[in-house]
Amino acid sequence: MWNTPDMPPQRATLLQVAQRAGVSRSTASFVLAGRHQDMRISEETRLRVLRAAQELDYRPNLMARSLRTKVTKTIALISDTIASDPYAGRAIHGSLAAAVAHGHLLFIGETDGDPVVEERLIADFLDRQVDAFVYASMFTRYVRLPRPLRERPVVLLNCLVRSARPTHRSIVPDELTAGLTAARTLLDAGHRKGIYLVGNPGNGVFASRERLTGIKEELATAGVRLAGIVDCNWWPDSAYDAVCRALRDGLDPKALICLNDRVAFGAYQALREAGRSIPDQVSVISFDDSELAAWLRPQLTSIALPHYELGRHAVETLLGPSAEPGITRLTMPIRRRHSVAKPAVE
Amino acid sequence: MWNTPDMPPQRATLLQVAQRAGVSRSTASFVLAGRHQDMRISEETRLRVLRAAQELDYRPNLMARSLRTKVTKTIALISDTIASDPYAGRAIHGSLAAAVAHGHLLFIGETDGDPVVEERLIADFLDRQVDAFVYASMFTRYVRLPRPLRERPVVLLNCLVRSARPTHRSIVPDELTAGLTAARTLLDAGHRKGIYLVGNPGNGVFASRERLTGIKEELATAGVRLAGIVDCNWWPDSAYDAVCRALRDGLDPKALICLNDRVAFGAYQALREAGRSIPDQVSVISFDDSELAAWLRPQLTSIALPHYELGRHAVETLLGPSAEPGITRLTMPIRRRHSVAKPAVE
C-alpha cells in the first residue's frame, strides 16, 4: 500500500482566512486578489489578511477560480515526437523557462504524427481548459494545424502552415542564412575549388533544402560553384560509407559542408582512414552544433540549431503582447572551432 | 493581433444535450457518467442522449467535475533539470507513454535543484489539483522529498530517499549489476590482466560508485584484480588527456572499462593516436549506451541506461495498482558490439 491517503490534505478555505483575520469573506477575497485600493481596504486590514493567509498556508483553488475567469494559466506543448532527437530536451527547457517567467505551467504531449492521437490529445487538453498551445515539430516542416486549434491562441514551433497569407506565428531556425554562413566561412578562409556537400538535400527535408539554397547563393556571389554532392542520409555510418567510396573513386575535396554533425562525424572517420588530415588537407564545416561537434578532434566548426531559443521564443510569443501572424526566423549562430583552415597549396 | 478571440469557442452544456435528447438534465448526466444501469435508464433513452452529445460535440467540463471528484487525471513530473542530459527526452517519452495509457496528461517542471523554485512549482501544481507526482533526478542520487509531496502519491524516478525504512517507491537503474556485467563480459572474453577503469568513481556520483563495486565484486569471484584507475571526469576531453598521459607514462592496458560512453569516446581518440587498435590490442567496454556507442568505429559495447523504461515504469507504478514502498532496480541491458575481443597474445 501507498503511504499516501486517497485524499490530499485539506486546504485552508478563504472563510478560514477571513475568520482568522476578523474580516468578511469578501474583504479577504479582495485583499488576496490585490484589489485593496479600488475597494478602499485599509493597509492594516490588508496586512492582517495576508498574515492569516500565510499562517494557514492558504492557496486559492485555482481550478475553482478558473471556472469563473476561464484562465488556468496552463499551456500545452504538442509535438509529433519528444524523444527521437535527443536535443528535444533543450526546446522543452526553453519553453519551460518562458512559461515559468509568465507564471504558467506546461503540459506536454506527443502525437507520433497520428491525427487520431492528436485529436484525442487536444480534446483532453481542452477538457482541462488549457489557455494556449505550442504546436511543435522536431524537424522543421510544413504542417496542417488541427481544426480544434485554429481558433485558439497557438504558436507554431519549428513548423509552418502553407497558406497564401499567414494565419499564425511560426518560430523556425533561419536555415537559409545558415547555408550562407557556411559558404561564407569557407570563402573567407580562401576556398574556391573542391567544395563538396555531404548529405542528401533532395529528400524533402526542409532544413537541407534551405541550407543548400543558402550555400549555392553565397558561393555564386563569389563566382564559385559547388563541386558536387556526396550523397548519404543523416547518419554517421551512411556518411562514412559514402565519403570512403568517393575518396576511393578519386575524389579530392578541399572542403566538405556536412548537412549535420552526425554526417560530419562519419566524414571525419572516412577522412582519417584515408589519411587526409583535418583541416590541413580538408576543411569540414557542419550544421546543428550538437555536443558531438565539440568532442571531435579537431573540434568541429558548426552552425547551431538554437533549440533552447526556439522553445523560449515560441512561449514568449504565445504569452507576450499579441503578435501578428507570420514567420520568425531565429539566427543560427556559428560556433567557430578548428575544422576550417585555408586550402592546402596544390 | 492574433486571429484568435480572447475566449475559446463556447462549449455545449449538459443542459443543451438534455434538451436535444428530450430528457432531464440529471438523466443526461447519469447516461454520460455510464450510470444507466443503476439508474435504470432505458437503452433507447441512453442512445438518444449519446447521439445528442455527439451531435453537439459535447465534452464534460473536466475542471468542474474535478471540483466534485477531486480527480483531474493529471500528473506532474518534477525534475532537477530537463535539458542537461540530452537523453532526458527519453525518460519523458516513457513517462508520457504510460500516462497516456492510463488516460492521464503530463505536466513537466524543473527546479534547477533550487528548493525555493521547487516549493513554488509544487504549490503551482497543487493549485491545479494535480493527482500525483513523479519526482525525478537526471543523475541517480539521494534526495530529500519536499515536504508538500510527502503525504501525496509520489514515485521517485532515478533517485532515492535515505531512510531506515523506505517511505516511497523508487525506480532506479541497476548500476551494481551493470558493473558485474561489464566485468563478466571481459572475463568471458578471456581477460585476466591489465584491466583498467577510466573515470572517477570517487566523486560522490551514485552510478560510478555502484558500477565500480559491481566490477570489483565480479572480478574478485574470478580471482582477478582491477589493475588500476585512469582518473578523469565524465567528458571526452578529460578522458582523452588522461588516457594519452597514462599511455605516454608506459601504461599497457589490455582492457578499459569506461564509466560512460563519452569517456569511452575520449579513450578511443587517445588509443587511436597512440596506434593501439581496438579491440585487437585493447578491449573497451562502457556504460549508458548513448547514440555515440553505435557511431564509434569499432562500434562500442555498452551497458544501457534504460531511460525510456525508467520513465515508463515510474508512471506505471504511480498509476497502477498500489505498490509497497521500496526500490525497483531496472536491468541495464548490455548491447554487445565490436569493441571487446580476447586479449592479445603477449
Question: Could you name the key traits of this structure?
Answer:
alpha/beta; 40% helix; Rossmann fold; elongated; 346 residues; 12 helices; 434 Repressor (Amino-terminal Domain); disordered N terminus; 6-stranded mixed β-sheet; homodimer
Describe this structure in words.
The structure is a homodimer of 346-residue chains. The model of chain A is unreliable at 1-9 (pLDDT under 50). In chain A, helix 1 (14-21) crosses helix 2. A six-stranded parallel beta sheet of chain A has the order 2-1-3-4-5-11, with helices on both faces. In chain A, strands 7-6-8-9-10-12 form a six-stranded mixed beta sheet, sandwiched between helices. With 346 residues, chain A is an alpha/beta fold. Chain A folds into three domains: 14-60, Orthogonal Bundle (434 Repressor (Amino-terminal Domain)); 74-172 and 307-330, Response regulator (Rossmann fold), CATH 3.40.50.2300; 175-306, Rossmann fold. Helices cover 40% and strands 19% of the residues of chain A. The first copy, chain A, has twelve helices and twelve strands. Chain A starts with 13 loop residues before the first helix and ends in an 11-residue tail after the last strand. At the A-B interface, helix 4, helix 5, strand 2, helix 6 and helix 9 of A face helix 4, helix 5, strand 2, helix 6 and helix 9 of B.
